[in-house]
Write a structure and sequence with these properties.
The complex is a heterodimer of chains A (383) and B (271).
Chain A lengths: L34 H27 L7 H11 L11 H35 L12 H15 L6 H24 L6 H24 L4 H11 L12 H16 L1 H8 L2 H6 L4 H23 L5 H13 L3 H25 L8 H27 L3
Chain B lengths: L5 E10 L2 E11 L4 E5 L6 H8 L7 E6 L9 H5 L2 E4 L11 H6 L14 H13 L15 H14 L4 E5 L7 H13 L3 E5 L3 H7 L2 E6 L2 E6 L1 H4 L2 H8 L2 E6 L6 E6 L2 H13 L1
Parallel strand pairs in B: 3-7, 3-8, 5-6, 6-7
Antiparallel strand pairs in B: 1-2, 1-4, 8-9, 10-11
Classes of the chains: A mainly alpha (383), B alpha/beta (271).
Chain lengths: 383, 271
């Protein structure tokens, strides 16, 4: 680059003396990624990691039996093999922290983080800020798959078959919503949300039908509770699958963060910058369905985490997915751990499904987002 | 980096069931600025989309530096060819700098970070379109003209040997129209550009191809192509073409209907 101006038929000096395109040693190189996302970009992950530690400590300590933070960490580090705390706690308290609360808190961490990154990726994939697994009916598809497995008794094969069916349901509903919303070219918010609502309605109705007509009526109540989304009833043995799915999801998405950025530029522009859009999107659909399926199989459909977290972290770290994905994961983990703490304490001894609480926060957030985007749309005066 | 040659031979394109380009041939020698003009719907954008490998040709050949874009990966082509397309995209709080840095993607491997060289190229591209001040602004918050300049900067950051631009002067005020095309003129790259404004095409392009209803109806240097007869035939308007004494380029003046002119004149007197 930076050769002499080329081109045949130069017509003398241009009408204005603009700088040459790539001046050798032009403006000083790296102001780096300053301002907008810069400081937040570096600071946010650190703060959020600290917050996550606090959240997890609270999650392990709060409940009908209160365990103070010092004791929580004593129990945890002792279990991990470090002996710097004198085990002065009772056996019961140890069981409560390690076997009752720890799996539940970890499932909250995994689910919150997973839903947040899936939401962020989905928003890029359909280029729409209102996308997230719950609103687009993907969670409903996953639920239907899982319920079919439970009702037919195939669930005896354990969490793998449950998650596999949830994955299949998620993929099916995602493709349905995407092809419907895309009919006629560009995806508009309205078509996307309407398609999501319609697909969710049909799949949820199917699920209710399957559930109510099954011979295993004793399952119905249990499963209905699960469809509201909750972290209760989890044990160590059912934790590994969502955890593996989450790590896979975060790993692949982080590696592909640049490609997610390109998608925001629009399909054609992304293609001219080197992205094989159709193939990338197909792979992403499979990956996001897989993660969503495993999370829903474990925790039920929990809504709006995938909507709220990406938007909130973008305010602090900007829109680059290389920064959005890790921070959204941390924020989602914190959020769901606290939501679960609230779910089991606000009406104690009764437990509120955590999905109910996330919807209480998420619904208003959704409305706010819709209004904001409408205003921005007006400002831009798009044709 | 050098400029890449482009040849298009007997190209036929469809959008759905509709033929939008028919038997079009054109060539751009390395370093040339070649303009495409023609009324709305004449097939300019479709032709460009085929060149930047988004619309697959029904028939015909496209060669970028002798290679068929459709036999390359998107990434390989993207290291040679950059495009400024009409869809501005959504940005989800990406800053202008982030958007321009996207242009570096085809030169990156999977886990490569951004280097100081990338930062330099991004800064240089921004300064080339007079947009250094916008670097930290949110792309979504820009005006149409600002956004257009940023998209051009993104294409520059891609360091293309062939630059394809669809109406790059859309939304730009006069100053930035001249600035952007002046910049394009001085690029070492070959440029294929669709333009609405015939006077801009006349001044900045080495050669012009005129499209009407998917076919090329005239090709040549601006003085060869831009004639009153062509304006009448292709655009259905009456116009005069003169060589401008200062620029040396042909200049087109459109002549409105007699009746409209009188109405305008009396309107001016009333005011």
């Amino acid at each position: 680059m930076g050769a002499a101006p080329a081109g045949t038929g130069q017509r003398g000096p241009g009408p204005e003396p603009g700088p040459p395109p790539h001046p050798a040693g032009g403006r000083t190189a790296a102001t780096g990624r300053a301002a907008a996302g810069g400081r937040g970009g570096r600071l946010a992950p650190v703060l959020l990691t600290a917050l996550l530690l606090v959240s997890v400590t609270a999650g392990l300590g709060v409940g009908s039996v209160h365990v103070p933070p010092g004791e929580v960490w004593g129990i945890v580090t002792h279990a991990l093999g470090a002996d710097w705390a004198e085990p002065a706690w009772s056996r019961v308290r140890e069981t409560i922290v390690l076997d009752v609360r720890a799996p539940r808190v970890l499932l909250g961490v995994v689910t919150g983080a997973g839903l947040a990154v899936v939401g962020a990726a989905m928003q890029a994939l359909v280029r729409n800020p209102l996308a997230e697994p719950y609103l687009l009916g993907v969670s409903s598809g996953a639920s239907l798959g899982a319920v079919i497995v439970v009702v037919t008794g195939a669930g005896l094969l354990g969490p793998v078959s449950l998650s596999a069916a949830a994955f299949a349901g998620a993929l099916l509903s995602m493709l349905l919503v995407y092809t419907t919303a895309r009919a006629g070219g560009r995806i508009t918010s309205m078509r996307l949300i309407l398609a999501g609502v319609a697909v969710a309605a049909v799949l949820t109705a199917l699920m209710d039908l399957v559930l109510l007509t099954s011979d295993r009526a004793n399952h119905a109540r249990e499963v209905l509770a699960w469809t509201l989304g909750g972290l209760g009833g989890v044990h160590w043995g059912s934790l590994w699958l969502p955890a593996v799915a989450l790590l896979l999801g975060i790993g692949v998405l982080t590696v592909q963060a640049r490609s997610l950025n390109l998608l925001l530029a629009g399909e054609e522009a992304a293609a001219t910058m080197g992205l094989d859009v159709a193939r990338f999107r197909a792979r992403m659909f499979v990956l996001l369905s897989l993660v969503t399926g495993c999370l829903v199989a474990a925790a039920g459909p929990i809504g709006f985490v995938g909507l709220m977290m990406p938007h909130i972290v973008r305010l602090f770290v900007g829109g680059d997915h290389r920064r959005v994905l890790p921070t959204a994961a941390l924020a989602g983990a914190c959020f769901l751990v606290w939501a679960d703490i609230a779910a089991r304490t606000v009406a104690a001894p009764m437990e509120i499904p955590v999905g109910v609480l996330t919807a209480l926060c998420g619904g208003p957030f959704f409305l706010w987002l819709m209004r904001r985007d409408a205003r921005r749309g007006d400002e831009r005066g798009r044709a | 980096m050098s400029a890449a040659g482009l040849t298009v031979e007997d190209l036929t394109l469809s959008a759905g069931a509709r033929r939008v380009v028919q038997d079009v041939s054109l060539a751009a020698a390395p370093g040339e600025v070649v303009g495409l003009v023609g009324p709305n719907g004449s097939g300019k954008s479709s032709l460009l989309r085929a060149v930047y490998r988004v619309l697959r040709p029904d028939e015909g050949r496209i060669r970028v530096d002798g290679d068929d874009p459709w036999r390359m990966t998107a990434r390989t082509l993207a290291r040679t060819l950059a495009a400024v397309v009409q869809d501005p995209g959504a940005a989800f709080d990406l800053t202008v700098r982030d958007v321009v840095a996207m242009g570096r993607t085809p030169h990156k491997r999977l886990l490569d970070g951004d280097t100081a060289e990338d930062a330099r190229l991004v800064a240089a591209a921004l300064s080339a379109v007079d947009a250094e001040d916008l670097a930290d602004r949110g792309f979504d918050r820009l005006s149409g003209g600002e956004r257009q300049r940023v998209l051009i900067a993104r294409a520059l950051a891609q360091e293309p040997a062939l630059l394809v631009m669809d109406e790059p002067t859309n939304h730009l005020d006069v100053r930035h129209q001249l600035q952007v095309l002046g910049l394009v003129r001085r690029l070492p790259a070959t440029v294929l550009v669709a333009l609405h404004d015939l006077n801009l095409a006349a001044y900045y392009c080495d050669r012009i191809h005129v499209l009407r209803a998917g076919r090329i109806v005239a090709s040549g240097t601006p003085p060869e192509v831009l004639t009153p007869r062509l304006l009448e035939e292709v655009y259905g308007v009456v116009g005069e073409v003169r060589v401008h004494p200062r620029t040396g380029a042909p200049q087109v003046t459109f002549l409105p209907d007699e009746a409209d002119r009188e109405a305008a004149a009396s309107g001016a007197q009333d005011g």
